[in-house]
């Protein structure tokens, strides 16, 4: 696996993201591009392979190849768990598969008190077939977990977490065909829009979620409470 990190330029305005972009590339020799693409879309299967997931569901459709969804995940103690609302779009062209998402504000899913609302500035997957059972798998991410985590901690952590995500998805791809055969094998609304039963939503109801517009939740009390508990 290859990993690249693009650091944000040092500037003195509040507009440039301070979190790094990270890109991972994996050459997969035992799973097809189509299967990897299905794994990334299949919300039911994600419950089987994503150990960090708390809750995940699609909210509404925007078009035949775009929707809005919700995802929350576990964070290691004493850090508070996170959630995110994203607009996702996808495209298949010949032997190439693309999925991208970024954070949006949804009027019915504001930040919750028990979670820290994170921000996907840009997250994407690019999968290219290299054979009937092989592909090149690329993951790009620039995300801000918000809260009170120092950006240097976020940037260092992403360099560990992103490759780990790739390995989880690859393993999921190896097991997906057998699982899918037993779980609605013909149901793939990401490929067949006529199967999608989500209600349509007007994109005008959404707005881009800027990281600097969210409150920086102070997690120091959580850390202090955990330290006190550990020392008692």
Summarize the structure.
By secondary structure, the chain is an alpha+beta fold.
What does this structure look like?
The chain has four helices and ten strands; from the N terminus they run E-E-H-H-E-E-E-E-E-E-E-H-E-H. The chain is an alpha+beta fold and about 230 residues long. Strands 1, 2, 3, 4, 5, 6, 7, 8, 9 and 10 form a ten-stranded mixed β-sheet that branches. Helix 1 crosses helix 3 (about 150-180). The longest helix is centred in the last third of the chain and has 31 residues, at about 150-180.
List keywords for this structure.
232 residues, alpha+beta, ten-stranded mixed sheet
How many separate helices?
A: 4
Query: Helices and strands: which structural class?
Result: alpha+beta
Overall geometry: globular
Mean pLDDT: 86
End-to-end span in angstroms? 43 Å
Q: What is the radius of gyration?
A: 19 Å
Number of strands: 10
Q: What percentage of residues falls in helices of 4 or more residues?
A: 25-40%
The main sheet comes to:
10 strands, mixed
Low-confidence stretches: 221-232
- Approximately what portion of the residues adopt beta-strand conformation? 35-45%
């Amino acid at each position: 696996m290859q990993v690249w990190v693009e650091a944000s330029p040092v500037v003195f305005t509040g507009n440039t993201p301070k979190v790094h972009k990270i890109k991972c590339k994996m050459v997969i020799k035992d799973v097809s591009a189509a299967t990897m693409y299905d794994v990334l879309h299949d919300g039911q299967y994600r419950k089987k392979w994503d150990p960090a997931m708390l809750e995940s569901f699609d909210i509404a459709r925007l078009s035949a190849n775009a929707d809005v969804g919700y995802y929350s995940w576990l964070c290691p103690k004493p850090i508070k768990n996170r959630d995110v609302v994203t607009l996702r779009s996808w495209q298949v062209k010949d032997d190439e598969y693309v999925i991208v998402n970024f954070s949006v504000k949804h009027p019915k899913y504001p930040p919750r008190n028990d979670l820290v609302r994170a921000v996907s500035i840009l997250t994407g997957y690019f999968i290219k077939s290299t054979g009937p059972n092989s592909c090149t798998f690329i993951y790009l991410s620039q995300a801000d977990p918000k809260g009170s985590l120092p950006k240097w901690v976020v940037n260092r952590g992403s360099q560990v977490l992103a490759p780990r995500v790739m390995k989880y998805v690859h393993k999921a791809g190896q097991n997906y065909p057998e699982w899918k055969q037993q779980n609605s094998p013909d149901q793939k609304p990401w490929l067949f829009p006529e199967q999608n039963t989500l209600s349509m939503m007007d994109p005008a109801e959404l707005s881009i979620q800027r990281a600097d517009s969210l409150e920086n939740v102070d997690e120091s009390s959580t850390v202090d409470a955990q330290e006190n508990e550990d020392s008692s």
